[in-house]
Amino acid sequence: MHHMAGGLPHRVLRDLAKKYGPLMHLQLGEVSAVVVTSSELAKQILKTHDLAFASRPKLSAMDIICYDSRDIVFSPYGEC
């Protein structure tokens, strides 16, 4: 997290990718994030694990302001 402080996020992630490689796991507070900076690697990952990345996390705030998370942005993948 301290790597992200004081810089533009896209530039900080670029610098981290140069140092650690195109696939990184970041723990941003309580949120676990996988960052892929290579288009070829992203294509390969999403080809085999697309369902794992298809839905967004369920957030209470989105239930309140986005029609119980059923709007076009936050609706879950598949049948509701």
Automatic annotation (TrEMBL):
GO terms for cellular component: membrane. It is found in: Membrane. Keywords: Heme, Iron, Membrane, Metal-binding, Monooxygenase, Oxidoreductase, Transmembrane, Transmembrane helix. Its main location: membrane. One of its GO terms (molecular function) is monooxygenase activity. Belongs to the cytochrome P450 family. This is Uncharacterized protein. It comes from Capsicum annuum.
